[in-house]
Specification:
binds beta-D-galactopyranose; alpha/beta; Rossmann fold; TIM Barrel; 9-stranded mixed sheet; 20% strand; 3 domains; single chain; 660 residues
Length: 660
């Protein structure tokens, strides 16, 4: 486990640096990220590089046994770049150029910007690419800018040409005869602003993904051509951000890291666990928390503080889900920077803030578990399929504004979290052999090849759950000509006869052992069984007339290996969703682990089966929980106590159990 912070030494007089680094060391920090956003200090004028200060900062960190992560400074191009090369500025959707100085103002599509990015990174890599004190690189910062310039438009048109080859094919897939959109040649195709043709909108998102892949490829090449391979390369991602397809962008990174901020309120482990699992799923690998808030942020409606002790619970929760590092943002706020009031570890007076003590405790606790966690990760039997294409397709036409595809994924995840079931969140094209149960959450875009991939796995014995809106569209965001679930209709032994955006709740009568009827809100699909083997597992009660007595959930056995395809038509209420999830788990031969409310039990394990069990009390009251058999009798690495069959945790208390 690494533990650290983001430090901007260029904001402070050098005489102060050693005091800061000593305080980091005393907090148990092992890693520090520097140089991100520091372009104007690295290349103050065109072609004049000043890297000695970075070298001195690295040396100081090294003296205190802190490894360096170098940020490429490209999210903040200096004033001279903007002034002498206005073509580097991104154009906003309004048609106006972005304003210099709020970072991320440059266009990832601008060849001039890319040239300058590459050059500054090459200089940094030549100097530090073989420096053992630098363990890795973080590229840019939270890729997010979309450019609406003519340059970007030409690149988009070229991207479409590569994909569709002939303009007729594009017209055909996008149904452009509708509203006379038919294009005669590529140069006529616009960048969509706001709502537009579904094919165009989806393709533009995919082009933005391609843009970031290319942007990143330049940066990776600039480093790799000048460094040794022991330095890793990552970038810091933003949770559910859907500006590009992160599965694609993550491919070229050594691992992903992400920035975990709570903003207002407090952390809810049944939602944040999903975010960690999402990030672990990008590469099916452990990840870093490259930024997290030291108590508070400055950008939310109410920048309340975390509870005392909450950050420690968050840190261990992240570790339990596969984080191999936790890095606070930031060490100290620049006196006149845009983020003056953000949480930090040291105040404007240079002294530790109250949060620093929480950090020290995390630092010393991480040291106690670090060896046991080496080589371990989360092993899940359940996967949730998460598709950017589907999110873009649904968000483009929600049909009911309350249908948020991310909310729906959370709705599937929460019961699994409450029952301590490990979950991988993966792309629909990912290998499925490790899983017994796969939940396709609102998999609206279901091309034939993905359907074939899922079908093969179901024939091999997998249990696939298709939730509302699945199998609606093809890869061009056009409607399938067969009813949902489109290419999986036969395997499902059922189809969606009609879908309803709900303005009032409808009753759902389950048939999976749950006796009480419940409700559906937001969305309901009327299912029609198509084969003699299909069983109706829930029906709608009296409702809008259309749905009365109709099938709401179906299950169909598939093949000889025990495979099943389950279709869920309605957005169920929380209680019914929980009982439905327990039912599908049982159909897949799985069950969860019981624990009292707000107590999480999570396991990391090594390839040889060695397990580390995290028991985390997320609430501010004492809790006692039974332990899974594999953890009973093991040592709590944090206290040294040997656990019996149960463990009692203090408010916000944690136990980390291991045989070693
Ligand atoms: C992140 C960003 C950091 C800092 C932080 C404040 O999104 O990467 O540089 O601005 O937010 O919470």
């Amino acid at each position: 486990m690494h533990f650290g912070n983001a430090w901007y030494p260029e904001h402070w007089p050098e005489e102060r640096w050693e005091q800061d680094v000593r305080l980091m060391h005393e907090a148990g920090m092992t890693v520090c990220r520097i140089a991100e956003f520091a372009w104007s200090s690295i290349e103050p004028t065109d072609g004049r590089y000043e890297l000695d200060w970075i070298d001195r900062a690295i040396a100081l960190l090294h003296k205190y046994e802190i490894a360096t992560v170098l940020g490429t400074p490209t999210a903040a191009p200096p004033a001279w770049v903007t002034y002498y090369h206005p073509d580097t500025l991104a154009i906003e959707s309004s048609g106006r150029p972005a304003t210099h100085g709020n970072r991320c103002h440059a266009s990832p599509n601008s060849p001039t910007y890319l040239k300058y990015c590459r050059r500054v990174i090459e200089h940094m890599a030549r100097r530090f690419g073989n420096d053992p004190r630098v363990i890795g690189w973080q590229l840019d910062n939270e890729y997010n800018r979309v450019d609406y310039s003519d340059t970007a438009k030409r690149q988009f048109q070229h991207f479409l040409k590569e994909r569709y080859v002939t303009i007729d094919k594009l017209n055909d897939h996008w149904s452009t005869a509708y509203w006379s959109q038919t294009y005669d040649f590529w140069e006529q195709i616009p960048i969509p602003v706001g709502g537009h043709n579904p094919g165009l909108m989806l393709a533009f998102r995919q082009f933005v993904t391609y843009t970031w892949q290319e942007f990143q490829r330049h940066q990776i090449e600039a480093i790799r051509n000048n460094s040794n391979s022991s330095q890793w390369i990552t970038t810091n991602l933003m949770g559910w951000f859907d500006g590009f397809d992160t599965y694609k962008v993550a491919k070229d990174l050594d691992f992903v890291s992400w920035d975990w901020y709570i903003g207002s309120g407090h952390h809810d482990y049944t939602r944040t666990g999903l975010l960690h699992d999402l990030n672990r799923g990008f590469k099916h690998k452990n990840f870093w928390i490259m930024e997290t808030q030291p108590g508070t942020v400055n950008w939310h409606s109410n920048n309340n503080s975390l509870y005392k002790g909450e950050a420690r619970v968050m840190a261990f929760h992240a570790a339990a889900h596969g984080a191999d590092a936790l890095v606070y943002w930031q060490w100290r706020s620049a006196l006149g920077g845009q983020e003056q009031l953000h949480g930090s570890l040291v105040g404007p007076d240079g002294n530790p803030r109250p949060f620093y003590n929480d950090a020290c405790k995390i630092g010393s606790d991480f040291k106690l578990v670090s060896d046991a966690l080496e080589g371990t990760t989360v092993k899940a039997d359940v996967a949730i399929l998460h598709s950017y294409d589907s999110r873009w397709a649904i968000n483009g036409q929600r049909h009911n504004s309350a249908y948020d595809p991310v909310d729906y994924i959370e709705h599937c995840y929460r019961p699994l979290a409450l029952h301590n079931v490990a979950v991988d969140v993966i792309a629909p094209s990912a290998p499925l052999d490790d899983y017994s149960l796969v939940i396709a959450a609102s998999l609206s875009v279901l091309p034939a090849d993905i359907a074939a991939h899922l079908a093969a796995w179901v024939y091999a014995g997998g249990v696939l759950v298709l939730t509302p809106r699945s199998g609606h569209k093809d890869e061009h965001n056009a409607l399938h000509t067969s009813l949902q679930p489109g290419p999986l209709r036969e395997l499902a032994g059922a189809e969606v006869e009609e879908y309803f955006a709900l303005d009032e709740p409808v009753t759902v009568v389950p048939g999976w052992g749950e006796l009480e009827a419940g409700e559906a809100t937001i969305w309901a699909e009327m299912l029609r069984p198509l084969s003699a083997t299909t069983r109706v597992a829930a029906t709608y009660g009296p409702s809008n007339g259309w749905l009365d007595g109709k099938p709401a959930v179906t299950i169909n056995p598939v093949g000889e290996a025990g495979g099943k395809l389950i279709m869920i038509g309605p957005w169920l209420d929380a209680r019914l969703q929980e009982s439905m999830v327990l039912w599908v788990l049982a159909e897949a031969g799985l069950r969860g682990v019981d624990s009292p409310p707000e107590v999480e039990i999570a396991v990391r394990q090594a390839p040889d089966g060695r397990k580390v069990t995290f028991v985390i009390n997320h609430c501010r009251e004492q809790r006692t929980t039974l332990l899974p058999e594999s953890a009973a009798g093991q040592k709590d690495l944090l206290t040294g106590n040997v656990a019996a069959a149960s463990v009692t945790l203090e408010p916000l208390g944690i136990a980390v159990l291991s045989a070693t």
